[in-house]
Amino acid sequence: MKITTIGLGYIGLPTSVLFATHGHQVRGVDANPAVVETLNKGYIHIEEEGLQTLYNDALQSNSFEATMTPGSSDAFIIAVPTPNNNDAHKSCDLSYVVAAVNSIIPHLQKGNLVIIESTIGPRTTEDTVQPMLEAAGFTIGEDIFLAHCPERVLPGNIAHELIHNPRIIGGVTPACTSVAKAMYATVVQGELIEATASEAELSKLMENTYRDVNIALANELAKIGLDLEINALKVIEMANRHPRVNLHSPGPGVGGHCLAIDPYFVAAASPQFSPLIQTARQINTSMPRFIVDSVNKLMASAPNNKITVFGLTYKGNIDDTRESPAKEISMMLQQSGYQVTEYDPHVDYATIDIEVACQDSSLILVLTDHTEFKNIAAQATNNMKQPLILDTKSIVQQHEATLLNLGNMHTQIGKIPQEM
C-alpha cells in the first residue's frame, strides 16, 4: 500500500517509519525544509529510542521518502500539530489540520483512505473534515473512507507502543472503520478497537484528561502539605498502599502536547459541564509559580543568586520541550533577577559540562526526571557556593548535598504566604 503522512514530528515520523518497515511504501511530507533535508541525509530529527535504527531499515529498503509535497496514495495520514486557540477556553486550533486536508484533496481518488491521527476536539472529524471532503465531491463511506485513529503512545517508547498498544479505529461509517482497521492490522499487534470517529476523539482526550486531573490532585496535596507542614510525598506513599488508591506524583507542572493541551479541548467543547477539568488545569498551570515562590524562600539567605536548573524537557529521557513547565520556571527565575544556568543532557543548547553548570551555584533545581539526574556527582556539588538541591521530580538518589523535595521542603522554608 502507498501511504502519505502529512507531518513528520514526534508522532508522524515514527508512524511513517513503522509502516515503511512493514511492507508499505511511505511518502512523508513536512512543511519544514530543514526536517526534510535532515531525513533525506539519513538522520532523524527527534530523540526517540530505537527510531534511528528503524529509519535506517526503511531507507535501506527504499520504502520511505521525505518531501514537502504530497502525491497520489492509497491512504493519507494527517499527523500535524493542534495547538490551543487564544480564546477563553483554549479550544483546538484546527488550522494545521485544515491546511493538511486541503493539501491532499487534489490527490484524492476513489477508494482512498484518510486518517486523522492529530489530537482534535470532539466531533471535528464529522463536523469539519467530512464536509471538506464532501465539498470536493466525495461520498464518505462509499468512495472515500474517513476515520480518526488517535495515537496512544509514551514518548521514549513510541516504536514499541505503536505496535503493541491497543488502537482505537474511529470510522465515520462502519465501512470507514473496516478499511482503516485493515490498514492498521498490518502493523499493530495490539487490539484494534472499533468506534465512531467522535467516540475515538473524546476517548483520546479523556485518557489524558484523566491523568491531568489526577496530577492536579497530587499537586494540590503538595501545596496542602507545605501549608500544614506535612510530608505530602510520604502521605502519597502510604495512601497508595490501599488496594484501591493510586495517587499520582506531584511535580513542577504538566507539559507536552498531550496532558497540557487535550483537557482544554474537552472543556472548550462543553464548558458548562466540565468544571472539574477546568479546575484541574488551573491547578497544574499554577505549579510553576508555586515552584518559583518556593525557590524565592529558599534563596532568601543564599550566598549568591545563582541557580542551576537541571532539565528543560517536559518529561525524562526525551528532547521534547513543548509546553515544558521547566522552561517556564527557568524563564520566570531569570525575569526575577536570578543568574540561571540551564543544564540538560538531552537539549542541544544546554549540554554543558555539569561541573561548569554547578560552579558557584547556591541551588540545583531539578525540574525533569532524566535518568542522568539519579546520581549527582560530588564533583558537581563540591563546587557550589551552597550544596542545596530542590528535586521537584523525586528522581535524585545519590548526592552529597542537602536534598529537598515537594514533600519535605517545608522543613527549610516553612509556609508560603496565602496569596499563592
UniProtKB/TrEMBL annotation:
Keyword set includes Coiled coil: no
Xref: PANTHER family: UDP-N-ACETYL-D-MANNOSAMINE DEHYDROGENASE
Molecular functions (GO terms): NAD binding; oxidoreductase activity, acting on the CH-CH group of donors, NAD or NADP as acceptor; oxidoreductase activity, acting on the CH-OH group of donors, NAD or NADP as acceptor
UniProt keyword terms in alphabetical order: NAD, Oxidoreductase
Xref: Pfam families: UDPG_MGDP_dh, UDPG_MGDP_dh_C, UDPG_MGDP_dh_N
Domain UDP-glucose/GDP-mannose dehydrogenase C-terminal residues, every copy: 308-398
Domain of life: Bacteria
Listed name of the protein: Nucleotide sugar dehydrogenase
InterPro entries on file: 6-PGluconate_DH-like_C_sf, NAD(P)-bd_dom_sf, UDP-Glc/GDP-Man, UDP-Glc/GDP-Man_DH_C, UDP-Glc/GDP-Man_DH_C_sf, UDP-Glc/GDP-Man_DH_dimer, UDP-Glc/GDP-Man_DH_N, UDP_ManNAc/GlcNAc_DH
Similarity field: Belongs to the UDP-glucose/GDP-mannose dehydrogenase family.
GO term, biological process aspect, one: polysaccharide biosynthetic process
